[in-house]
Every structure is written in C-alpha cells, then in structure tokens.
C-alpha cells in the first residue's frame, strides 16, 4: 500500500507543468552539448567528406604547351625513356650545370618567381636584308673595321672583326641567292651539289648547264695510307684539313670513320668552306694569322696540308707551332709542298727549312715520298728537355694555358705535353666515344660529384632524350647531315646521335661562358669549337640542317651581355631553308623565344619534355621553311 502511494505521488509530480518544462530544457541542453563537442572535435575539422583529389593547378594560360606523346595522359614516360638507370644525384647536378639553375639558398624561390613571370616582349617582323648580303658573315665581312685598321694587305683581314655595340651584328634576314634549291641530300651531295647554292666558285665546272656541279677528283687520303700505323677509323679518328679545296680529303675519310674538319679563310674567289658544307662535309672558316685557332690542344690525331698556302717556316715557325699545339701526342702531320713552290730551287730551300724546324720541335720524319712528307709528334716531353741549350723555339712556360683559345695571340713556343700523359693516351675508336677520358679531371668546374659520374649521366640523359625524339618527332626519318649542338657540354648529344646510327656529323660548340669541355669532346673522337654566342659564328649562311640548343638561352639571359634576339637571328643565318632548330630550355624564357621565332618567320610549336606538362623545361621546335 505504501509503494502504491509513493508511485502515485511521483506520477503527480511528473505531470506537473514545471517538471515537464524542466525536463525539456535539460534534454535540449544535453543535445546542444553533444553537438558542440562533435563540431569541435579534430575529426570534424580535418576529415572532410570523401571526394576525388583535385588535380594540380595548370600552368599560366599563356604557357599551355602542345602535348607530344613523350608522356602519356597519366604523365608517365613513353617513347623508350629509361631514366631509372641514371644516378639521381648525378642527373640533378648535371641538370643544374646544363641550364645554370641557382641551387644555393633561395635559388628555388628565384626560379619559381622567374617561371611565374608573365612579361611578354613584343618583336616586330624582321625584314629581309639587301641582296648583296646573301653570303654575309658578319665578323669576317666587316669592311669598315678592316679599312679603319688598315688591314687590306695583312692576314689579319681574314680574322674576326665583329661589329661592336650599339651596332648590331645583324638586324635583318639574309636573302636566298637567285635560283636557290633545297640542298641535295647526303650521300648524293658528296658528289653533286646545286651550283646556284654556292655562287662565285671556280672550284668546279657547271655540269652541262644543268645548274648541277660535280666535285672533281682532287686530294684523297691515298697519300696518307703509306703509314699503316695511322689506322683510319681506329687510331686516327679526328683530322684537320688545311686549305681544303673541295674537301675531297674530308669526304674520303668520312667513309672510313674519320671526322675531318676542313678549314680555309673566307675567300670571295673560291668559297672553299661554303662548298664543303654544301657537300655535307665538316668545315669551318678559319685562318692561320695572328691568333690561335679555336680548337684545344691535342685535338687532332692527324693534320693534313696538301697544296695549302702556308709558309710554315716563316715568322720563326709560329704557324707550325700552332699546328703542333693542336696535334695530339703521337699524331701525324702530312705535308705536300708542291705546287705552291713551283720552282725546284725554291722547293728545295723550303724543304731544307722545314726539315730544320721540324727537327727542332722534335717531330720525327717517318715517311717521304716525292713531294709528300709525314712527320710524327713525340709522345712526351723527353726530347724537348734533352735539346741543346739555346735551341729555338723554347718550351712554353708554366703559365701558358694551351686550351685558352678565345681571342688569344699566337706565341712562339712549344706547347708542353702533360707529364701525366693526358690527351695522348686515348682509347681507339669507337671505344673512346664512351670511355671517360683522362682530361675530364683537368676541367675547371664546380661539381660535388665525380666528373666520371657526370660524364656517364650526360651520356645516358641524351640517349634517353633522343629515344623520345625518335618516337615522337620521327627523327629517324629526317635526313640531317650538318648538325650543330650550340651548348655541347661533354658532347653527349653528338654521341647519342652516333649511338642511334644517324648518318650525320655534329659541330659541338662550347660557349665561352661555360666550362671548357672541348678537350674532352676531342678525346671522345668528336669535333667542336669555342664560341661566344653574343657574336656571329664563322660559317657561311645556310650551312646547317639542325641546330640544337639546350639551356643556351637561359644561360645567356642570365649573363645579360646581348639580347637573345641577336642569337636567334644568327641561328636563322646559319640554318638552311627546310632546316630545323630544337630549343630545350626553361619555361620562363619560352614566351620570348617563341615571339622572336615568329618575328623571324619560323613555324613553331611548343612541346612538353619527358617530365610532363608541369616541368620547368619545354622544347620549342622551329622550322625554317622554304618560301
């Protein structure tokens, strides 16, 4: 009875309005408390509702590049790229060296700021130069400077005299000669070229009025084969042919795996170098005068002078000493004096003087047959050091740098050979192409990794890139013969072309602003030259089928010596109609390069690299089409 009374009293309390109101408020408070606790919990703040991961932001609209297929839709490498075999540290350091990126503190932010820059310079369309400039070489045709210096009767008139700022070296596009044809492809061009493409040359005769000229059977390599030890294409890989005529010697040796660089001064009467390049034979305008030639010490396994117009014993033999500087230890010098010295008495006197000079510089006469003589350079310094006291010319002193060649005056002294044998103990061809040469260790460069690692990384880097170019741009279908790498490094691009069996030769250019890798390039069995791209190159117009520039423009932009439009105008001067330029560089400079290329009249397209659409590098493909 008592329990029932208690339950009845409790129910009466629950039914009262005040209790109901209190209970409702309590429940509301508890609900609100649980809600606040949930909203303020870490899981509520940082765990969003599941949704797809947003894509990476696209580059700025003006830099959207055409996809090439080097990467697929997922950004994966295609086209045979195998970068996993390259040491990542070596590859990164190589990339910093190649494109001169800032790697110190704050360097990354500086790079990102450059890439975010949207400055776009406007270039008006370039006009065509007057017809008289169709064969113009700016630094060799500077008539005003030659007259000012009174060099009309001096060999110096054949040397470089470049227009000086504010006068531009070129501000217009060189016109084609009348009747110009697309060059005959290699190897047919070795024997036949269009006469209208090489005006003013008496070297060969017009072939029956067909506007075709056939090369004459001039100098060949038969006179050099008297020495079996020369071993073309094995021990002898690089050669220099002086005053080359129609470059028959170089064309002959190309078929024997010897790359022969033919040189001669610019001569309006003969145009030897223009003719050689039209044939597809390696050639460059160069002269023995007052400055060093632009090739390193111990560059050539063989130097050939047949019917060349050089008096080697004059001026204390200074020109033969320059040839000696460029000749590899143990290399051969081939000389045929006749018919320059036509009178027998003069010929005998010249021969006696030549014998005397060559003996004093320790060359050994290994063969003489008729008017042809072949000497061999010593392998070390022992002969030089054992000469009698006072014998001239002297050995060069220790401050002499034989690889410093940019605007350096000739010196009447014998270039010492390295005591460690560097340069003279290269492997035979083709092993030497991929064997890291000893002179790698002589390069003055800032690198934390070993030079051997960088050398191997560069070779792998360019081989994989060429794989991609073949797959995407169909390079194997191109018939390029004359190729220039405008920033060659160790020569990895040229080596990759050889590995992929391209039937072409490469002029490897080492810019003066970088490390001097020319000795390494020649030790590999390749050819090259030192150059400053703020000045015109020593070649005739319309002489190269392919120009390759990797990291060149970003380096020159940072240097701030010249406007990069001057470099591209020079590229247009050197490039044949129907030729192509591949520019691989940072995205921050591509807008300006594409603007200049359009102003020049090239047909351009911008492409991704193997690293995908968001990488800092792009490839600008430029075609110089025949009008």
TrEMBL record:
It comes from the Eukaryota. It is a single-pass type II membrane protein. It is found in: Golgi apparatus membrane; Membrane. One of its GO terms (cellular component) is endosome. GO terms for molecular function: methyltransferase activity. One of its GO terms (biological process) is methylation. Its EC number is 2.1.1.-. Gene3D superfamilies: Vaccinia Virus protein VP39 (3.40.50.150). Keywords: Glycoprotein, Golgi apparatus, Membrane, Methyltransferase, Signal-anchor, Transferase, Transmembrane, Transmembrane helix. Pfam families: Methyltransf_29. The chain crosses the membrane at residues 20-40. Its main location: Golgi. InterPro entries: Put_SAM_MeTrfase (IPR004159), SAM-dependent_MTases_sf (IPR029063). The keyword Signal does not apply. Belongs to the methyltransferase superfamily. This is Methyltransferase. It comes from Turnera subulata.
């Amino acid at each position: 009875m008592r329990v029932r009374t208690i339950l009845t009293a409790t129910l009466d309390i629950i039914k009262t309005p005040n209790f109901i109101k209190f209970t409702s408020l309590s429940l509301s408070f508890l609900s609100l408390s649980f809600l606040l606790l949930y909203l303020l919990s870490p899981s509520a703040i940082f765990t969003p509702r599941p949704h797809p991961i947003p894509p990476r932001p696209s580059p700025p609209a003006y830099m959207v590049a055409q996809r090439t297929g080097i990467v697929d839709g997922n950004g994966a490498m295609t086209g045979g790229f195998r970068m996993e075999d390259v040491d990542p540290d070596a590859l990164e350091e190589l990339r910093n060296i190649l494109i001169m990126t800032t790697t110190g503190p704050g360097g990354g932010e500086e790079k990102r700021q450059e890439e975010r820059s949207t400055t776009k310079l406007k270039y008006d369309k370039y006009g065509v130069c007057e017809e008289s400039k169709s064969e113009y070489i700016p630094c060799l045709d500077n008539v005003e400077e030659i007259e000012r210096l009174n060099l009309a009767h001096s060999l110096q008139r054949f040397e470089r005299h470049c227009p000086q700022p504010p006068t531009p070296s070129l501000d217009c596009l060189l016109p084609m000669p009348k009747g110009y044809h697309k060059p005959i492809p290699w190897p047919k061009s070795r024997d036949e070229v269009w006469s209208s493409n090489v005006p003013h040359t008496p070297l060969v005769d017009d072939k029956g009025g067909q506007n075709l000229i056939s090369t004459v059977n001039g100098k060949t390599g038969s006179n050099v084969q008297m020495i079996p030890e020369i071993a073309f294409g094995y021990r002898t890989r690089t050669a220099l042919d002086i005053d080359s005529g129609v470059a028959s010697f170089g064309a002959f040796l190309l078929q024997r795996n010897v790359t022969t660089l033919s040189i001669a001064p610019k001569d309006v009467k003969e145009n030897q170098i223009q003719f050689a390049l039209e044939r597809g034979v390696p050639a460059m305008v160069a002269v023995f005068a007052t400055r060093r030639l632009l090739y390193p010490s111990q560059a050539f396994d063989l130097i050939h002078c047949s019917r060349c117009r050089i008096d080697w014993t004059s001026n204390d033999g200074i020109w033969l000493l320059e040839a000696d500087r460029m000749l590899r230890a143990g290399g051969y010098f081939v000389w045929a004096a006749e018919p320059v010295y036509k009178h027998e008495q003069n010929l005998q006197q010249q021969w006696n003087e030549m014998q005397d000079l060559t003996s004093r510089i320790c060359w050994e006469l290994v063969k003489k047959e008729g008017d042809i003589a072949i000497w061999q350079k010593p392998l070390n310094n022992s002969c030089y050091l054992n000469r009698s006291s006072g014998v001239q010319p002297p050995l060069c002193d220790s401050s002499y740098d034989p690889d410093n060649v940019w605007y350096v005056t000739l010196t009447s002294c014998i270039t010492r050979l390295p005591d460690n044998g560097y340069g003279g103990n290269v492997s035979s061809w083709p092993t030497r192409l991929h064997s890291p040469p000893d002179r790698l260790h002589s390069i003055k460069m800032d690198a934390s990794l070993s030079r051997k690692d960088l050398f191997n990384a560069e070779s792998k880097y360019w081989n994989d890139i060429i794989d991609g170019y073949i797959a995407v741009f169909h390079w194997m279908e191109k018939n390029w013969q004359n190729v220039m790498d405008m920033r060659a490094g160790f020569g990895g691009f040229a080596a990759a072309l050889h590995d992929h069996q391209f039937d072409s030769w490469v002029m490897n250019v080492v810019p003066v602003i970088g490390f001097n890798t020319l000795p390494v390039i020649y030790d590999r069995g390749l050819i090259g030259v030192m150059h400053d791209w703020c000045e015109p190159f020593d070649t005739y117009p319309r002489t190269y089928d392919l120009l390759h520039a990797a990291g060149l423009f970003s380096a020159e932009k940072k240097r701030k010596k010249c406007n990069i439009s001057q470099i591209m105008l020079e590229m247009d001067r050197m490039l044949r109609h129907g030729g192509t330029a591949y520019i691989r560089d940072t995205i921050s400079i591509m807008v300006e390069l594409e603007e200049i290329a359009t102003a020049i009249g090239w047909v351009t397209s911008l492409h991704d690299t193997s690293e995908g659409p968001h990488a800092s590098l792009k490839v600008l493909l430029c075609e110089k089409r025949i009008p």
